[in-house]
Amino acid sequence: MTEIADILISASFWAAILRIASPLIFATMGELICERAGVLNLGIEGIMVFGAFAGWMAVYAGLPLWGGVAVAMLGGMAFGALHGLLTVPFGLSQHVVGLGITMLATAAAYYAYRLALPQVTNPPRITPFQPLHIPVLSNLPWLGQALFSQTALTWAGFAAAGATALVLFRTPLGLAVRAAGENPQAVEAQGLSVTAIRMGAVIVGSGLMAVGGAFLTMSAFSSFFFEMVNGRGWICIALVVFGAWKPGKALLGALLFAGFDALQIRLQQTGLGQVVPYQVFLMIPYLLSILALIAMSRRAEVPAALMTPFNRGDR
Amino acid sequence: MRLEPIAAPSHARTLVPPAIAIAATIAVAGLLAALAGANPLQTFGLIVKGAFGSKFAALETLNRATPLVFTGLAVAVAFRARLWNIGAEAQLYAGALMTVLIGTQLGLPGPLAIPLMALGAVMAGALVLLGPVLLKTRLGVDEVVTTLLLNFVMALFISYLLEGPLKDPMGMGWPKSPSLPRDARLPRIVDGLRLHWGFGLALICAAGVWLIQTRTTLGYEIRAVGANPQAARFAGIPVTRVLVKTALLSGGLAALAGFSEVAGLKGNLTTDLSASFGYTGIVVAMLALLHPMGVVISALFVAGIFVGADSMSRAAQVPTYIADLLLACALLFMVLAILLTRFRVVRG
C-alpha cells in the first residue's frame, strides 16, 4: 500500500493525469456536442487518428505548431461535414455511417502517411508543444510540477470544455443545439433549421475530436504511430454517457479515467507488476469504461432525439 | 431539402444510384492511384491480376474471403435485428482460442477433435456477445460501445495467454500457441490446392443463415424486431429472447472465422491471426445489403481487393492502404445509393 501512497503523492502522477486526460477532454467535448444535437458520431475513433496524423504531418512539413492544430481541426471538420451530410439531411444509419467514417479517416491517414514516407520504419519526430511556464505558479514547490507543467494544448482542452459548457447552457445557440437533440419539431416550429444546427454541431464536434487526436502526436508524443489512438475514441463515447451528456461531469469523468490510467501505468512498475501480468493493467481503461456505462445505465438522461433522423414533412 | 418515399420505384430508380456509387468508388480509387504517381488503369489492372489473375492468386483470394464470409454473416445476422455487434473481432479470437485449447490440450483423435473444436468455438463466441446483449436488454447499455471495447480487452487477454500459460515452449520465444496436431487440421478441398474446408463450411453457413432467415419463425421474428421493436413486442414477439438468440447466432458465426483460420490455415494462435476481419465483416455485410448469399459474393470482392492491392503495391508505388480507403468509400457511397433507390430528394 505504501507504493500506492508514494504514487499518489508524486507530482509526476498528477501531471500525468492532466496529460492523459487532455486528448480525452477534447474528443469527449466533441462527441458531447454531436450527441446533444441528436447525432451519435462513431467516426470519432477515425477522426482522432486523422487528427493525430494531419497535425503532426503539417508540422513536419514546416508549419508552426498551432498551424498543425488548425490543419488537424480542419481535417476533422471535413470528415464531420461528410458524416453530417449523410446522417442529417439524408438520415442514414448513424451507426453504419459513423463506422464508415472511422474506416475512411483511418485509412486516409495511413494512406497519406505511406505516400509521404514510403520507406521509413521509424517515423520522424517533430518538436512538440513544450510545457508552458506560468509565472509564479510553475515555480511553486510540488504544485508547480503537478499542476502547472502542462503544454498550452492541455490548457486549450480545459478552455474547450469551459466554452462547450458556456455555449451549450448559456447561449441561445446552445439552447437550439440541445433542443435539436431533444425535440427537433419544436426547433423547426421556431423557424430554425434542425438540419443546419445538427450539421454545425457535427462539424464543430468533429473538429474538436481531431484536435484531441493531434494532442497525441503534438504534445504527448512527437511522432505518429499506427494504432496510437487505440480505442480512445470509443472510451470518449463511454465518457459522454458517464458524464450524463453534461460537459462538467464529462470533464470530471475524463480526469477520473485518466487518474486510473496513470495509476495503472505506475502500478506496473511496482511489486504488483511482478505478480500481475501487464495485460491486466492495460485492460483496466476498457473495463472501467464498460463499468461506467453500466453504472450510469439507469440514471442516464439520453437526449430524447439521439439517433433519430429528422425529415421535414414527416409527422 | 427533404426526402420523399417513392411508392413504386422504376427500374432506373433501383439501378442507377448503385451504378453511380460503383463508378464513384472507381473514380476515387483512380484519383488515389494518381496521387501516388501511378497510372490508375494500370493500378486497377494490377489489382485484378493480383486477385484473380492466376490459380495461386484466386486461391489466395478464396482463403482471404473465408473468414470474411463468417464475420460478414455474423454482422448481417445481427444488423438485421438492429443488434449492433461491432465485436466480431473479439468473438473471432474467442473462437480461435477455444479451437487451440481443445485441439492441443485434450489429445483427442482428429475426427473427434475437429467437430468439438468447432462446437467449442461457436459456444465461446456466442458467450462473448451474450454479455453485451444482456447488458443491452436488462440495463439498456448501448451494445456498440461495449462490443467495441471488448475487442481491446480480448486482444489483451489473448496477448497475455500467448506470453504466459498458452505460450509454445518450442516457439523460439515468439508469443504463439502450440500448433494443432496434423490430424486436427481441416483437410484441403482438393489435394494439392491450398484451399481448406473452412471455405466449404463458410458456404454451408451462408446457406444455413439464408434458410433461417427465410424459412423459420426465428428469421421472421428477427426481421420484425429489426424493423420495429415496439411493434414486434406489441405483436407478441418475445423481443429479448429473439435478441439473445440473434446474439448467439452472430457470435457463433464470428467465432467460426477464428476456428477456420486456426484449423484450416495457420494451425496455431497468434495475436495477428485476424487482419481486422471482424471490422471488415461490417463492410462485407453492408455491401451485401445484409443478405447471407450476398455476403459470399461481397466477401470474395472485398478479399479480392485486399489480395489484389497487396500484390499491386509490390509492383507499383501505391500504398496497400488504398484497399481500406476504397472499401470505406464503397460502403458510404453504397448506403447513400441504396437510400436513393427508395427516396427522392425534394426541395423545401
TrEMBL record, chain A:
Matches recorded under CDD domains: TM_PBP1_transp_TpRbsC_like (cd06580)
Bilayer topology annotation: Multi-pass membrane protein
Membrane-spanning ranges: 6-27, 39-59, 65-88, 95-113, 147-169, 201-226, 232-263, 275-296
Signal peptide positions (record): none
Alphabetical UniProt keywords: Cell membrane, Membrane, Sugar transport, Transmembrane, Transmembrane helix, Transport
Keyword Transmembrane helix: yes
Compartments in which it is found: Cell membrane
Gene Ontology molecular function: any one: transmembrane transporter activity
Top-level taxon in the UniProt lineage: Bacteria
GO cellular component: plasma membrane
Pfam families assigned to the protein according to its UniProt record, in alphabetical order: BPD_transp_2
Protein name according to UniProt: Simple sugar transport system permease protein
Origin organism lineage: Bacteria, Pseudomonadati, Pseudomonadota, Alphaproteobacteria, Rhodobacterales
Automatic annotation (TrEMBL), chain B:
This protein's GO CC annotations: plasma membrane
Family annotation (InterPro entries): ABC_transp_permease
Species: Salipiger aestuarii
Pfam families (UniProt xref): BPD_transp_2
Protein name (record): Nucleoside ABC transporter membrane protein
Bilayer topology: Multi-pass membrane protein
Transmembrane segments: 20-41, 61-79, 91-108, 114-135, 144-162, 195-213, 279-309, 321-340
Localization annotation: Cell membrane
Keywords of this entry: Cell membrane, Membrane, Transmembrane, Transmembrane helix
GO MF annotation: an example: transmembrane transporter activity
